[in-house]
Design goal:
This protein is 69% helix and 0% strand. It has ten helices and no strands.
Length: 246
């Protein structure tokens, strides 16, 4: 049977080798459309990572360029670049014990960076051709689409690229994400939460998205204990499996 595009039979994957920008762009396209091969997902190159960081930076700029509430530093896109390093570290720490392929922080970082392009939806200036109410609803839909897309991509990466079972991948993904959502809400949305609760301040098209994040954070707080227990159980059985295989 012929291997899928980008996948070799019986070949050892060497991660973080350099490649052309064109090859990296093609691989990014396969990642975003869930058509990447196992070799693609287990062996990202340095060029893949560089491309991902550039895309993340551009998405960070586009995310806040029309939001009057954010500070100048957020509009530079630097925060988004820093964020993927932290997120990749958290995802790697929780998923690494279960990984059978592509077990490398830099590989996870490269993948996370390449999932940034859906965020270009945030750069669409819907406020320019919609009412505040319509734009707020649209931004909330954008938030939902981007979040679901990225989570689905990471699950795909863990299952296909790293050889993790679906159940384990879901738990290993949810645990760090609930922590990230909670932390980001506390750090970045405290003023927005206060204004929304008071019902005062300048109303903007981003308010509905903020309100959705508040709801997601509440759900994360409730789900966190159960997800943590499930993770520990899976970790225990994984340790037993590894011990038996030795």
């Amino acid at each position: 049977m012929r291997p899928r595009r980008g996948e070799t039979q019986g070949a050892k994957v060497t991660t973080m080798e350099s490649g052309s920008w064109r090859e990296s762009a093609a691989k990014a396209g396969r990642v975003l459309t869930f058509t990447a091969s196992r070799d693609d997902l287990a062996g990202f190159t340095r060029t893949d990572l560089r491309l991902g960081i550039v895309l993340t930076w551009l998405v960070g700029i586009g995310r806040h360029w029309d939001n009057p509430r954010v500070e100048f530093i957020q509009k530079t896109g630097v925060g988004s670049v820093v964020y993927i390093f932290v997120l990749a570290a958290l995802l790697f720490v929780f998923a690494a014990p279960f990984m059978r392929r592509g077990r490398s922080y830099r590989n996870v970082l490269a993948f996370v960076s390449l999932t940034s392009p859906p965020g270009f939806l945030y750069a669409i200036p819907v406020e320019k051709f919609m009412t505040i109410s319509e734009a707020a609803t649209t931004n909330a839909y954008f938030l939902a689409v981007v979040a679901a897309w990225r989570v689905a991509l990471f699950l795909y990466f863990l299952v296909r690229g790293c050889g993790i079972t679906v159940v384990t991948a879901v738990v290993a993904t949810l645990l760090p994400l609930t922590a990230v959502v909670t932390a980001l809400t506390v750090l970045n949305l405290d003023r927005a939460v206060f204004d929304i609760m008071r019902g005062v301040g300048t109303r903007s098209s981003h308010d509905v998205a903020y309100e959705v994040l508040i709801i997601i954070t509440a759900i994360a707080w409730v789900a966190l204990p159960g997800v943590a227990v499930a993770y520990l159980i899976l970790l225990y059985f994984n340790h037993k499996r590894i011990t038996k295989e030795r």
